[in-house]
């Protein structure tokens, strides 16, 4: 069972001052960004910087992904060649529109893993769905590679591609969100929601993160560390839900010891998916019990 | 100079030519316990007859009439911050008059005072007692351009030194943003308004001769507020301007958006909350820089949420604390120095916002200074060592670039003294094996809070327990030091000339806690 990633914090790949603090912001994951945050003039420098940090910085318990430049750019291959041998947890591949896009990345990553002598499949793929074409192919993309761990929605680019505006309530992205989650879950993968760009609007962020959680996204991207606690709060399970999950797990153990497959809790039938959901909720709730705790104590 | 090792293991002189004898620091309250009574050094009483005029034609005339001559001590206050024009104006006039060998004893020296370097070169200033040294002046002192070491005093320590007579002031020059013709003056009104002038109040009371310098003469009686009254003022000089309003009245400081500072603030607030001290009647002091305001904003939310009403906010007061006062989250603010422009109107109009002097604020030799009643103080640090000793005076290059301020005073007084600092700055770690200059002894510090964790002083087992119970990211300070050094490497210590002391660091009781040495290659 993978790590729960409620937040994926984008860190500009050309900002050493930010990268060095990756372990302290409280995000479950970071995405070191070589793409949109980095101007064309700084692509090479950012790639070298990110590679150096992957080599030397202790990211502690933070899941580390790198957003590389898209396959259609001249930087894509260079990015992969530099980053994959350092063994990050995942690469975010922008603008995936077909299974070929994923497979091409898959081939290059596999070859680079071999060359670097790291176990095959170490570096996962998070495919970014950020065009109408990509959205239409979401399920195919999600099933195109074993290495693919998640679909991520790129809301900004998708809106531009659809020729529509962002609104505060986010209705314009409801279909895309639902489609991405459904495609990912159908392929037994995770889905991550897009960023909330107004860093001053905490309430708007909270509402959108709540929506993402309700729709089934495993987590949401963040563009500023101040967004982390807000998203985490939106993902916090209700105490009543946690209590019910505990009852379900207790009953499940009892049923298993008695050799029963199906049982009921609070008058409702419980089966394998419900147990799975309860297990996830309990893992999630543990994150809130230990939200501040450091690695070491004196 | 005869050197002995003090209670912090630092070599300090017992006798300094130009200043006289010193005692060595033992522990925060050792001297106060050994010697709870000290004699007071009082200025002579001076009579004035009815009808005597105080307004003097020119600064030069005023200086002449004050009787200032070679070898005397002049004092100033630094409430006009980086906009102060009074100290440069007065020293220039003194220099033109041919007076030399003065002791300069301002409450502190700011970026507005680089000119002092020239007056040292001309021999006008030959000794300095101050809270801080910065910029060109700090660099010049660190190069050894003054023969007699500077004495660094905390705000409470300076008040103590003045009141006991170890820093006798011959002529005090008081920048007065508004002053009537009898000498009643305040910093809360006038075009150069700066808010509280709490440090200057001690000078006015104890100097042999007091000259108010104003650019806003108002008719008698000054109202509604008088900070220093006419019975303490000898002469009044009217100047075109006493400062640069743009640099005196800085805009209200904003809460940082720097994510590292925000993380430090959150950690610090969590620790303060875990300590259990935030309750009805809570008292608090915080600065305006870096993470400080963000701590105050967490505090505001918490107090509102829990319906807690604090007793008082203390110290240098910024606009944010004024908002908390206005919202009823604190009963009173005690203001010794105002940080932002909007503090001035509050001090003038709100009777619960009170101006206090440096002695009431922090002098250990009073019957009850206010730092003793503080629950929590949040302080900064340039660096800190694994025994929690704090340096706020010398930079990583060993050059003087800071101020003692109320750091050691508040740390000694407060129930919980928290140092807020990033774990490294500019690639240099904040936690050192040994700090170059000890200003505040580790015995008075309870915790260091960084973005990478919270370090608690080993003597505070209760606090450690509370922090662990609250699930806070506690780390042993040596471990955090190692963790940071993995990123930064270990910095080299600056090379200094141990035979050449350029500054003596007094603890608040007057004992010497450390020395600053001449730097090489600066």
Q: Which helices and strands occur, and which strands form pairs?
A:
The complex is a heterodimer of chains A (298) and B (522).
Chain A: E1 7-12, H1 16-19, E2 29-33, H2 43-56, E3 63-67, H3 76-83, E4 90-93, H4 99-116, E5 124-129, H5 132-136, H6 138-142, E6 148-153, H7 155-162, H8 174-186, E7 190-193, H9 202-215, E8 219-222, H10 228-234, H11 239-257, E9 263-265, E10 268-270, H12 272-289
Parallel strand pairs in A: 1-2, 1-8, 2-3, 3-4, 4-5, 5-6, 6-7, 7-8
Antiparallel strand pairs in A: 9-10
Helix pairs in contact in A: 2-3, 9-10, 11-12
Chain B: E1 3-5, E2 11-13, E3 15-16, E4 20-21, H1 30-34, E5 55-56, H2 59-66, E6 73-75, H3 86-96, E7 102-104, H4 116-121, E8 125-130, E9 132-133, H5 135-142, E10 150-152, H6 155-164, E11 171-176, E12 178-180, E13 185-186, H7 198-206, E14 209-214, E15 217-218, E16 235-238, H8 245-248, H9 259-275, E17 283-285, H10 292-306, E18 310-317, H11 319-326, E19 330-338, H12 341-349, E20 353-355, H13 358-362, E21 376-379, E22 383-385, E23 390-391, E24 402-403, H14 407-413, E25 416-420, E26 424-425, E27 428-429, E28 431-432, E29 447-450, E30 453-456, H15 461-469, H16 477-488, E31 496-506, E32 512-519
Parallel strand pairs in B: 5-16, 6-7, 6-11, 7-8, 8-10, 10-31, 11-14, 12-15, 14-16, 17-18, 17-21, 18-19, 19-20, 21-25, 22-28, 25-29
Antiparallel strand pairs in B: 1-2, 3-4, 9-24, 12-13, 22-23, 26-27, 29-30, 31-32
Helix pairs in contact in B: 6-7, 9-10, 9-15
Explain this structure.
The complex is a heterodimer of chains A (298) and B (522). Chain A has helices spanning 16-19, 43-56, 76-83, 99-116, 132-136, 138-142, 155-162, 174-186, 202-215, 228-234, 239-257, 272-289; strands at 7-12, 29-33, 63-67, 90-93, 124-129, 148-153, 190-193, 219-222, 263-265, 268-270. With 298 residues, chain A is α/β, with parallel strands linked by helices. In chain A, helix 2 (43-56) runs parallel beside helix 3, helix 9 packs across helix 10 and helix 11 (239-257) crosses helix 12 (272-289). Chain A is globular, with a radius of gyration of 20 Å. The model of chain A is unreliable at 293-298 (pLDDT under 50). Chain B contains 16 helices and 32 strands. Chain B is globular, with a radius of gyration of 22 Å. In chain B, helix 6 packs parallel to helix 7 (198-206) and helix 9 (259-275) packs across helix 10. The model of chain B has no long low-confidence stretch (mean pLDDT 95). The A-B interface holds A 18, 20-21, 23-26, 56-58, 224-226, 289-298 and B 257, 259-260, 262-263, 270, 451-456, 464, 468, 470-477, 479, 483, 486-487.
């Amino acid at each position: 069972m993978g790590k729960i990633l409620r937040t994926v914090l984008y860190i500009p790949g050309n900002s050493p001052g930010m990268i060095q603090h990756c372990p302290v912001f409280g995000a479950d994951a970071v995405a070191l960004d070589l793409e949109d945050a980095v101007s064309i003039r700084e692509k090479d420098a950012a790639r070298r910087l990110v590679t150096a940090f992957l080599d030397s910085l202790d990211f502690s318990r933070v899941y580390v992904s790198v957003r590389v430049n898209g396959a259609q750019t001249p930087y894509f291959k260079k990015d992969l060649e530099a980053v994959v041998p350092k063994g990050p947890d995942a690469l975010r591949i922008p603008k995936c529109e077909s299974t070929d896009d994923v497979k091409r990345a898959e081939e290059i990553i596999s070859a680079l893993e071999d060359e670097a002598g790291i176990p095959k499949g170490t570096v996962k793929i998070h495919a970014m769905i950020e065009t109408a074409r990509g959205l239409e192919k979401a399920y195919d993309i999600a099933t195109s590679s074993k290495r693919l761990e998640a679909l991520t929605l790129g809301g900004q680019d998708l809106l531009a591609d659809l020729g529509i505006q962002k609104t505060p309530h986010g209705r314009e992205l409801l279909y895309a969100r639902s489609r991405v989650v459904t495609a990912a879950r159908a392929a037994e993968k995770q889905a991550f929601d897009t960023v909330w760009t107004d860093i001053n609007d905490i309430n708007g962020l909270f509402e959108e993160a709540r929506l993402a959680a309700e729709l089934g996204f495993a987590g949401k991207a963040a563009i500023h560390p101040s967004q982390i606690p807000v998203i985490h709060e939106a993902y916090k399970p209700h105490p009543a839900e946690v209590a019910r999950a505990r009852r379900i797990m207790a009953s499940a153990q009892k049923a298993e010891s008695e050799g029963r497959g199906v049982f009921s809790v609070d008058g409702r039938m419980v089966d394998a998916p419900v147990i799975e959901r309860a297990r996830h909720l309990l893992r999630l709730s543990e994150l809130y019990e230990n939200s501040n705790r450091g690695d070491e104590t004196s | 100079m005869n050197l002995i090792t003090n209670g912090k293991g630092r070599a300090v002189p017992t006798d300094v030519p130009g200043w006289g004898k010193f005692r060595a620091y033992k522990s925060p309250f050792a001297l106060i316990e050994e010697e709870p009574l000290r004699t007071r050094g009082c200025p002579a009483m001076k009579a004035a007859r009815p009808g005597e005029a105080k307004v003097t034609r020119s600064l030069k005339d005023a200086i002449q009439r004050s009787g200032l001559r070679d070898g005397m001590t002049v004092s100033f206050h630094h409430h006009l911050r980086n906009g102060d024009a009074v100290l440069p104006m007065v020293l220039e006039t003194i220099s033109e008059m041919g007076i030399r060998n003065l002791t300069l004893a301002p409450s502190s020296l700011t970026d507005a005072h680089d000119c002092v370097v020239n007056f040292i070169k001309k021999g006008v200033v030959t000794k300095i007692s101050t809270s801080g040294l910065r910029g060109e002046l700090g660099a010049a002192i660190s190069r050894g351009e003054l023969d007699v070491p500077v004495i660094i005093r905390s705000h409470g320590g300076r008040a103590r030194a003045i009141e006991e007579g170890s820093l006798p002031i011959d002529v005090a020059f008081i920048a007065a943003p508004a002053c009537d013709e009898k000498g009643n003056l305040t910093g809360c009104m006038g075009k150069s308004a700066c808010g509280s002038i709490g440090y200057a109040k001690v000078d006015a009371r104890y100097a042999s001769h007091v000259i108010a310098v104003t650019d806003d003469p108002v008719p008698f009686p000054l109202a509604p507020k008088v900070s220093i009254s006419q019975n303490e003022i000898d002469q009044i000089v009217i100047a075109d301007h006493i400062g640069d309003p743009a640099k005196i009245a800085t805009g209200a400081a904003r809460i940082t958006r720097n994510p590292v500072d925000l993380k430090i603030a959150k950690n610090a607030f969590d620790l303060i909350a875990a300590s259990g001290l935030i309750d009805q009647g809570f008292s608090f002091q915080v600065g305006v820089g870096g993470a400080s305001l963000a701590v105050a904003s967490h505090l505001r939310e918490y107090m509102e949420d829990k319906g807690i009403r604090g007793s008082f906010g203390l110290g240098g007061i910024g606009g944010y604390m004024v908002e908390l006062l206005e919202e009823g989250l604190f009963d009173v603010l005690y203001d010794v120095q105002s940080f932002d422009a909007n503090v001035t109107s509050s001090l003038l109009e709100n009777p619960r916002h009170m101006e206090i002097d440096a002695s009431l604020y922090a002098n250990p030799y009073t019957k009850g200074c206010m730092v003793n009643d503080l629950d929590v103080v949040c302080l900064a640090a340039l660096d800190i060592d694994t025994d929690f000793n704090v340096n706020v005076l010398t930079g990583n290059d060993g050059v003087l670039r800071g101020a003692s301020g109320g750091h050691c005073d508040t740390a000694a007084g407060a129930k919980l003294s928290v140092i807020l600092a990033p774990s490294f700055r500019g690639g240099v770690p904040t936690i050192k094996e040994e700090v170059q200059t000890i200003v505040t002894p580790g015995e008075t510090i309870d915790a260091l809070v960084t973005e990478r964790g919270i370090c608690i002083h080993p003597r505070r087992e209760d606090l450690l327990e509370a922090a662990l119970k609250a699930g806070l990211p506690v780390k042993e300070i040596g471990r955090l030091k190692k963790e940071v050094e993995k990123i930064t490497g270990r910095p080299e210590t600056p090379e200094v000339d141990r035979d050449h002391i350029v500054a003596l660091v007094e603890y608040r009781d007057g004992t010497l806690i450390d020395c600053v040495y001449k730097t090489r290659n600066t």
